[in-house]
């Protein structure tokens, strides 16, 4: 379980002090996948940076399985908007990089699992290519394989689908959920798409404009439903979230 308790973040420079997050509290179970949505600049990336351990200077507490969050103890998987692949390493080496960084031996089973996942995602024949030789969608799938292979305790994604064009994006969301359902782990993803939040978020965390506060957490019953757009609750939920964001924007 992930517990975020009363987290506040300030950015301080010589000239000013910016309050980016104010009193964020939230609990997520180990099989929760949570969408974070809110207006631009409300602190979504800041929150992910706290959860990934990049920002260490914050008020409050973040606990993962009752232990204070620590990137040296916990395995944290991160899929950034640009997919975070190293351009000078092949697809295969990129996927095995987390093991190398941790100084772990790559077991035969790991390589087999990688091959299998790559086949599922249709990128197996690209193992020896470099990232620059792949399309955006293919890069993203490499990033997904790399992340699931390391079996993280916590998975974070910052607008990981927004760089893809519409048709590929829907397919990528579906593939991601398929793999996620087989390897469930506490997951937080930032999105600015209400549709993406409704399809992929078991819980939807709606944030207000700066300083970012949680204005509502929605238990989303459209989660994982491929036909969510024709569900009777869709338009009601969509406008509810839209109104929350609008109100949060004007606060
Ligand atoms: P989002 O991801 O929701 O668009 P961010 O988390 O990037 O928002 O930023 C939240 C707020 O903090 C914004 O007002 C932004 O200008 C400010 N901010 C972000 N990073 C820094 C920084 N390194 N120094 C000062 N202010 C920052
Ligand atoms: Mg951001």
From TrEMBL:
Cross-referenced SUPFAM superfamilies, in alphabetical order?
A: P-loop containing nucleoside triphosphate hydrolases
* UniProt-recorded name of the protein: ABC transporter ATP-binding protein
Query: What lineage is this protein's organism placed in?
Result: Bacteria, Bacillati, Bacillota, Clostridia, Eubacteriales
Q: Where is the ABC transporter domain?
A: 2-234
Taken from the record, one Pfam family name reads ABC_tran
Q: Which UniProt keywords apply?
A: ATP-binding, Nucleotide-binding, Transport
PROSITE patterns, per the entry: ABC_TRANSPORTER_1, ABC_TRANSPORTER_2
Q: Coiled coil where?
A: none
Give one GO molecular function term.
Answer: ATP binding
* InterPro entries with a match to the protein in the record: AAA+_ATPase, ABC_transporter-like_ATP-bd, ABC_transporter-like_CS, ABC_transporter_ATP-bind, P-loop_NTPase
Please give the superkingdom of this protein's source.
Answer: Bacteria
